[in-house]
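note to self — DONT lose this again. spent like an hour looking for the file last time. sequence + predicted structure for the chain T wanted, 148 res
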Amino acid sequence: MTTTRPGNPSWIAALLSWPWVAPALRVALVSAYLVGGVDKLMHFHDAILEQEHFGLHPGWWWAAITIVVELGGSLCVLVNRWVWLGAGGLGVLTAVAMLVANDFWNLAGPARFMALNSFFEHLGLIAALVMVTQLADRRAVAKKSLSL
């Protein structure tokens, strides 16, 4: 029986070890939240109307919370500090959004397909936020064990 070396092929490991990869991935992960938060901040009245459209009242409160979570959570992930808090907040916000805005169980036809697809895209994003939290925790534990 032959055994294989665990882990990624060496060329993948080399690519992933480049110092700019992790920060670039963090930017990519939170990019939609950054754009959304800035856009809502710049067009606050429209953000209020969006929240009210989905039945979230008072709209101003939900819009303000959304902006704080989108921008604050993204900042935590970007600077790699309190990642659990930032990614957790973004994950909860995403879960609320997917339940409120992607209610495929109430739809039929093409609208159902689009909402179903978007629902599971949001679920995948939540999983990525959990994974970035795991990665940050593993790095913190490794760094702490090196300093002992």
